[in-house]
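Need tokens for this chain, all 565 residues.
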Amino acid sequence: MHTRRTATPLLAALALLSAACSGGAGDGGDGGGPDGTCAATATVRPADPSREPALQPLPTGQAEASLAISGAVFLCATDVVVAPAGDDEVLALAARLAAGLEGPVLVTAPQPPADSGAEAEPDPALEAELARLTPRRIHLIGFDRPPATPRGAEVVSLPLDPSLLAGEVSSALGAEPTVALARGDGIQTLATLAGAISTGAGVSLGATVEADPGAGLPIVAVGTGASGALWMVDEGRPDLGFLAAAAAAGSNGKMVLVDGEDLRRLAPVATELRQSPKDPDTVYLLGDITDDAGWQLDVLLRGPQVPGGGFLMVPGKRMVALYGNPRTTSLGPLGEQGPVESYQRLLPIAEPYGADGMQVLPTFEIITTMASSGAGADGDYSFEMPHEDLIPWIDVALDHDMYVLLDLQPGRTDFLTQAKRYEDLLLDPHVGLALDPEWRLKPGEIHLEQIGSVSAAEVNEVVEWLAALVRDHDLPQKVLLLHQFDPIMLPDRELIETPAELAVVIQMDGHGTIELKMASWNRLTTGDGARFWWGWKNFYDEDLPTPTPEQVLDLDPVTVYISYQ
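Here are the structure tokens for all 565 residues:
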């Protein structure tokens, strides 16, 4: 199981590093080294390849984060940029300058104008970090009264007005042509800044843009990743991304913008990370990043994708399945032909379910353990399919970018015991699991004399086992489907866990008239229904008549799984 490891807090370690560079202010030097420069080979802290990636959450305040970033990356710096907090355009321009100069951006509170009569507030943390870095030049943006600077450091004053500052930055870097920074939307500003840094271009101020809540996140990445430092910035804090972008560019690290709630949502980030020459040894988290970041990062670095692309099964994908067993035609249409013919039969059935724009994923739901009228040699009233009967279907699904669900009807044994029989098959990224409580017997019961049921505790055993399988093997999200047409089948459903590793789907699989099916649907989807994804089953023979795709697409909540029996 993946173990999350936390590095020593950075701020507490800064004091121990104050003597890391020779020629500091206390040594009588004039910044960075004996010749007044910080040697490029000594600027960046060395990576530690001997350990697993350490996840290091950083402070959320701009000033505190800038100090933590500087302390994490730079042993010393020939050039340091100091900027006031609060203005995205100024911070973005400061970051472009710092990236070009291969130094950090340090952020402090804006100071009152010299002619205001107000006292300037000292910033001891900023002054201490400047003393530690022993820079040769300090580029101050918008300060009438500079902070205390190390002896011998040259102060370069820059204007606070972004339109003037942009010209000064481009001139200082000698960078041509220029990239116009987007204004008004922090994410777009960060994206255009990343483009300027990556191409070595200068910067100018572009048009003001409005944030579009419906637009997907752009792919924003800076740096090579060669040093082993990775900066993951939550989309909600692009201002911290400016600081991380400068650090990544100046240290051969890599900065990427992510969806902090689930790193897997932005699948192209994986491509960016896999282009780095090495896996990260330290991962810095900026903004509100999920506690699942450790194993989710492992998936991005080396995990396979699900059919149709990406690392998540939901939202966005709708599985449409043939249901049945390969050995018989009596349990559903899947058993009426072979796997290739089943795929071909399924295509026209599935196609209409993409009318609302959702990606349609053809699926086989295979009854893998079948409820049996006889106890069998093991006494569990369930026949377990041998692997060799299942593998041809799984292989065809792989060849045609399909999904497979292994459906369990366990009789008198428990779901986890049966699921473990097929662990090797569930290691495939396109294979998930379905549990059918109707066929879960209590001691002394036999099939068809009662509706079966299963407790949340037993379901959660499967949930925890399957989720661990996902984490331990760097797998993408798996579907766990639960059949239900009556509340008694899942009597304490509200206690079922829904971890991020799994897409837990409840399928309403009752049959009859549309009125009866809708009554069951409405009954089951209320209450705790918002915690789950939802599926629907169509019956060719038992439904009167079989609902149309248009009727299914009109259901509320939206369906992500439809099967035909």
